[in-house]
Amino acid sequence: MKFKRFAILAFCAFFSRDAVCQRFSTQGEDGFTKPDFFIFARMNADQAGMYSNFLSAFQRAGFNVVNPDWAQQQINAEQNKIQIATHLSSINGELDEDQLKKQLKERGYFAGWRGALQSLVASGHVIEEERLIEGNRWDKTTSFYSWVEGREIPQETWSEPNTLHLISFNYTYRESLSCGTTLSELHGTIRDISGDLNEQIIDFDFSQPSLSSYCPQRIANEIVRRVTKDMREKVVSNRTAAKSDVSFNVKGDSNEIAHIQTILTIAKPGEDCLGLQGMHFEDELALGFLESYDVVDRSVTDHILKEHKLNMDGLFRDSDFIEAGQFAGAEALVTIQPTCLSNQNVLKVKMISINSSLLLWSAILKNADRSITAEELLEAIQY
Q: Which tens digit of pLDDT belongs to each residue from 58-91?
């Protein structure tokens, strides 16, 4: 692996950077903070499939990705809730449903008021009482609503900084022998749009000349790795310093390991003593692996398993995922399995060759004080 990196650098230096080498640029605030929600909007034209590539890369990095319509619905629901709370808290006594509806309509509150009202009832801000009202021809059950004395009006939460980040980008594309379609250049930004904010946090760019052939997935993975680098380092620095017992063993041919470029990651069933499952580690490890490998997107893996009816009985077999790796064009399978043994957190990870089905390396990490971190494992792996 080290030789391969040296060879690439030497090749770029010999032919000049402008002729064959890719250029990545990521600039912005120090210590990027992961938002509560990360907004992705579908592109009208996306010949290179960058929407799905970016979406998958950010999801693997642990981002909670949502679409603009969902985010706007949550914001509208919160505003309705605050408006109705403000109105009810200003009234002494109670209102029946028809009275409340009429007053809200006079104030311009229309759609969504019923859902907001029920949310206030569920949170204990409003008392709802049903009563049977006698009528001339028949009786009618009516709900009466009153504000709970002493309760504060709910505060806005969607306006807090780092609640909503929005990514936007555009690119030019061209044909490629290795990818079918790839990019010539890409430009994008990440902005904090929480509340009334519209602050640009990250600016990223990519370009490559016609002699280069980085594919869309690799481009998206590298940009996400650069964007989240400070974020991951910040998380690591805040973690406890309790050391883990690490065991790493190379079993396979080091030359084969050095030439692996694409891997498929799979979380095996299990959880550590603190309840963390393999999926938690898989996301962080996949992000770290991007520094040295192309990682097959999880949605691609799920599609292959479903299409070829692999592992459909719920039982985990390495052979099924080795076969899935073959369909996905991967050269190695990396399995992750956390477990709890004698009140000690244990994380088992191994790399298996797709071609030979042989074990290439294995790593076992143990820690009695806390869960294992993905960064510890990445440091332990001598690939």
A: 887 888 899 999 999 889 888 888 988 998 998 8
Query: pLDDT of 294-339, one tens digit each?
Result: 888 767 766 766 665 655 444 556 777 788 788 888 899 998 898 9
Q: Is residue 308 part of a domain?
A: yes
pLDDT at position 123 over 50? yes
Which residues, other chains included, contact 158 with Cβ-Cβ below 8 Å and sequence gap of 6+?
Answer: 74, 75, 78, 164, 194, 195
Give Dmax over CA atoms of the chain in angstroms.
96
CATH code of 290's domain: 3.40.50.10610
Report the distance separating Cα 322 and Cα 229, nearest Å. Answer: 30
Share of the chain above pLDDT 90, in %: 22
Q: Is 313 left (phi over 0), alpha (psi -120 to 50) or beta?
A: alpha
- Residue 44 main-chain phi, psi, to 5 deg: -65, -40
Name the strand (E) or helix (H) holding 123. none
Spatial distance between the Cα atoms of 33 and 232, rounded to a whole number of angstroms = 9
For residues 269 and 318, is the Cβ–Cβ distance under 8 A? no
Q: Which of 130, 72, 80, 77 is nearest to 104 (CA)?
A: 80
Phi, psi of 208 (to 5 degrees): -150, 140
CA distances from 284 to 172, 293, 325 (A): 30, 14, 20
pLDDT in tens, 179-218: 889 999 999 999 999 988 899 999 999 999 887 778 998 8
The whole-model pTM stands at 0.56
CA atoms within 13 A on the CB side of 260: 31
Q: Do 253 and 355 belong together in one domain?
A: yes
Are 372 and 244 contained in the same domain? yes
Query: Domain tally for the chain?
Result: 2
Domain that holds residue 285: 239-383
What pLDDT is stored for residue 206 in this prediction? 95
Phi, psi of 17 (to 5 degrees): -60, -40
